[in-house]
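Minutes, project check-in

Agenda point 3 was the complex the collaborators sent over. CS summarized: two entities, 540 residues total, and the question is how they sit relative to each other. Sequences were read into the notes so everyone works from the same version.
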Amino acid sequence: MDSFWGNIFKSREKREEEITAVLKKIPIFEELNPREVSSIERILHRRTYRPGEVIFHQGDAGVGMYIIERGTVEIILEPVNQVVAEIKDGEFFGELALLDESPRSATARAKTECRMLGFFQSDLFGLIERDPRLGVKIVLRLASIIGDRLKHSNQQMQQLMHRIHELETQIQQLKETTAKGGRKKSRQASADAPS
Amino acid sequence: MDKQFARWIKLLFVLLAAAALIIFLVSIGELVRLVIIAALLAYILEPLASFLESRGFSRVAATAIIFLGILSTVALFIFLLLPTISHEIRSIQAGIQSGKATQLIQNLEHFIQTRLAFLGMQNLNLIEKAHQMMVNLGNQIFDYLLNIVSLITNLVIIPFIIFFLIKDGREIKRNFIRLVPNKYFEFSLNLLHKMDMQLGNYLRGQFLDALIVGILSILALWLLEVKYFVLIGAFAGLANLIPYVGPVAGALPAILVVILESGDMIRIVYIAIAFAVVQLIDNVLVQPLVVAKTVNMHPLVVMFVVIIGGKFFGVLGMLLSVPTAGVIKVVIQESIANFRKYRFE
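CS then shared the predicted structure for the full assembly.
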């Protein structure tokens, strides 16, 4: 009998250890102490998806982020059905929905059997109310991640702007060259013409 | 065709399940009533538990502190107000027994015949009717005393349910969400969150509003030296839960007491003015601050739900009918609004 209960508790403890290990790898939670991680664990939703099952559709109201405990998820752009990313064990997606309810920008579909942890806006708001210190830590981390992404996007945009500027200059030069060539040709043509 | 047939079968199955659930809930009506009262109270107390948690207490400790607080408040209330209330009840009983009631009823009959004769109110024979009413009331009290076991059971069960709803409410919600299929998971989560916010605001607003109106009415009646001011003021606060009808129903007992006592028209006018001022304060200051506007209901709807509540659960049903209808309105409103934001394929 003891071993029966022992096995049940052991498997539950093992699962919780696995979840803790997964959470520690997620940038949003990496700076939390063990007590705080276990507070987060208590508000996560554990879900399992079959291969091909849709997690959310593009355009649905966003409610929060998913952390993949095990499996692979495809991020698909509709209506072209183009797979733009594949997300695997220990990675996460949909974190922007923790901050606002704007529509999902792409569809997420399980490619393989997936075990996921859902961390949702309502639970984050509840956490901020009950444990403001932990709530602020998470929101700051989230802000920092989004800030990093913004910086990265800005850099990419600057590179693109620079490239566009280069292309515009090249086009201008080409135009000028073509125009000069055209004028030369027309002068030559008028000189060659019989008087 | 097969697909459509399967859809119809599914719909039939859902309808049958809903009917079975309703029959089951009606058959355990008493328990449902207790759960509704406990859930409403738990909703009102929930933010207190979250506040205590934010101060570093565990959920269990926070729940225990709230219960200790409620017990202390009830004890203090009994200690301070019970002598007044018991005095008020005793004086009502003494009035009935001493034959003074006959005199008071004659006063009322005289008042109606002299001032409201134009409405055709003559030969009312109120004494006989009152006598009949007292016999009925006596029977009801006897039944009630026989039912004292169920009263005590209620007094134990309601706090018991409240305690566990506050302590484990989040866990219960999470376990419920766990049962929802993946297709409807995000929709259900969002819906529950929205409903939770709306209902919490609405119920806490209603509770605070009733409390403030009750206290103001007690104060006003005490200043006007109306007998039984605590009982009537508390009733006025509770009656305020019912829009439109509540404020009038709250003032009527006070006016009736004055008519029975002296028939003094000036005091009746003062009481009417006092209740009008309380309503003004409620409408201008209290309601805009504490009551959620999203649950506004049409007067006709209010009337119907109050009648239905009264029909099935008596006075308590009338008082709880509007908050319960508010809960149903929020559920339907949010379900429709949320349904449009999701694709179910």
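Noted in discussion: Helices of chain A lie at 2-25, 34-43, 121-130, 132-192.
Follow-up: revisit at the next meeting once the mutant set is ready.
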